[in-house]
Give the backbone structure.
Amino acid sequence: MSVDHRILDNLLSELDKLEDPRRGAGRRHSQSFALLIVMFATMSGYLGYRAIKDFIAKHKSDLIMHFNPPKDRVPSYSTVRRILIHLDFTQFTTIYKTWLNQYVQASSDQASWCGVDGKALRGTIEADNHNDYVHLVSIFSTFDKLVVDTGKVVNKSNEIPLVQQMIKDSDLQQVIFTLDALHCQKKQQKSL
């Protein structure tokens, strides 16, 4: 496991800003360390609580070596599960996006490229209503190989206004965005 400690220390300090709803006596492991492990596991294809447990078991010695947790212990399956159940997802994504935008911005002095694309998610179409499905748009930093932001398109609308708002909110500088041709439309002027 190759680790850039400056980047991860910055992420851990950002994750420390999350409210931890656990009782003081129930905080053997830091919430930020457990969330970092969940992120590593998810990015490695370990999806779900039991899969995260398998990731922790497989990489326990690496996690201990790189992060020096107290008493050389890593969070258990039930600790990770409790943290994820009570996690304020909106607060987490806000903190993560802020950190990620800083990281993507700092990673290159030159202009970087970000691809923007929307996709309907497989398996989200209701059997009786083929027009009701989850449609997500993502901004992907091709230089860093990271998803910078995601947004959900509201049913019965298109992704153009969402993409415009996501780019505006991203605060990315010196970035060239590549988009589908549908985003090349001009605003129609109302004639009197």
Remarks:
- DSSP finds six helices and four strands in the chain.
- The chain has two domains: 5-87, 109-183.
- The longest helix spans residues 49-67.
